[in-house]
Request: fold
Amino acid sequence: MSDDLKGTEIVVKCLKEENVKNIFGFPGGQLIPLYDRLYDETEIRSILVRHEQGAAHAADGYARASGDPGVCMATSGPGATNLITGLLNATMDSIPVVAFTAQVPTKAIGTDAFQEADTFGITMPITKHNFLVKSTDNLSWTIKGAFKIANTGRKGAVVIDLPNDVQQKTSKEYYHGEVKFAGYNPSVVPNPLQIKRIAQKLMEAERPLILAGGGVILANASEDLRALAEYLGAGVATTLMGKGTIPEDHPLSLGMVGMHGRMAANKMINNCDVLLAIGCRFSDRTTGWGLESFAPDAIKIHCDIDSSELNKNITVDFPLVGDAKLVIRDLIKFLKKYEDVKKDTNIWQKRVKQLHSMCEECETFKPKEDKLTPEVIIKAINNFLDDNAIVTTEVGQNQMFAAHYYITKKPRQFISSGGLGTMGFGFPAAIGAKVARPDKQVLDIAGDGSFLMVCQELATAMSEDIPVVVAILNNSFLGMVRQWQELFWEKRYAGTKLGTIPDFVKLAESFGAYGERVEKVSDVEKALKNAFDSGVVSILDFKIESETNILPMIPPGGRVDEMIGVGRCRHK
Reply:
């Protein structure tokens, strides 16, 4: 038993024990008690966003950049429902986020009270887990359990719904032990017998290929993955979430695979004889829809921390449940035992390097004169940023241009919305990443459509002194939808033209931020320097042509071997 503590005191005490230093939130009537407790708090920074969706995305970006759970808060009713998109985004990408939502007093639940919403019911299908706390006595156990669930096994978002009276009542109960849940005991240690079988197949492979997903980054296993690839002589393709698992200037790196993937990665997927997929879920954006044509001649091995992902989309020959770091380390140990049966992969390695080089040559865009294009802008960003910089993206063409042309060298330095594809993610995620890593350059590669969805967070960045840079690839359209309309809907641009509103430079200046319009290639790096030197949040408005496409791509319903827009490739 402990001294009497108010619910809000219990919350803050638990947060400190979980080493929470930053909270992204927006108050409201039912959340006043907790915000009042935070008012005098010096160890936890409360960052006031301007929309609750921004809070969820900022907590998400914080978690991706730091490796620690992100925390967000919102009041009852519309405050909680405004978190929903961000919470689903985090859950789909397996990002640990803990969200505190206020609720009407327990006696009013179910009466349709002012600003009441069934947050527990609404968030149940879109989070990893959720809680409705009806007694202050259960509060500490619940919070500790929420952080455990969010940050163990396959990570994800967890919601704690706090009725107003639970925040204000006192309790002597404070849980000090390890929280355990019946039925929740994530299996992270790989089966050694299956590891042995997989190691044998890898050693017998002549054309091995690794497909690395976000699970490798979440497990902090990137160095281990590189060691495995180099030992096997295997090329490494990545999912969007896996970008940064291996330095993309490494000779075995093939880049991103899938719908908007690199030609080299997709070609090698369909030519390997053993495919080792680690920490990915074989989403449709990775495989295309013709699943039978995905790595058709390969023995398929799938290692993931979530058993429900195994044989869900792609039927594999060797499924394995386990934490990516433990899987890779155990594989390396077993592989070294089978050195005597290791196949010569020199020819394959040469093919990997050759195809990578040839596809790089064909995919490299050669601008005419001083023409400003996404490729040119992102390559200038590559040249300007240092090796420790963090790049976030919005969703759409800007995201895919960044995935293609930004060379990521380390994990947790490319932050993007994968499974949900959330427009408006990149800017608040950049804010969260900068809070987590204030010493690093942080830049959001944005589209004009995505940025307009969250531009109110300029106020957050200015008032909280969070100097991130937003590079807008401004084509005056919803670019990716327009591209589909051009390629598959006879250029019927319905509902996708944004026009020239607003003036992004004036918008930035109205918040006290730095803004600059860029229309020439020769001005790109100078503009980047001006933005980072300004010391405040900055918008760079890069004016590009409206009908700019990101190619190659797999058409809707197509297969990995049906990429379009490869006409200039001489090596098909």
User: Anything to note?
Assistant: Residues 122 and 374 are 39 Å apart (CA to CA). The longest strand covers residues 97-103.
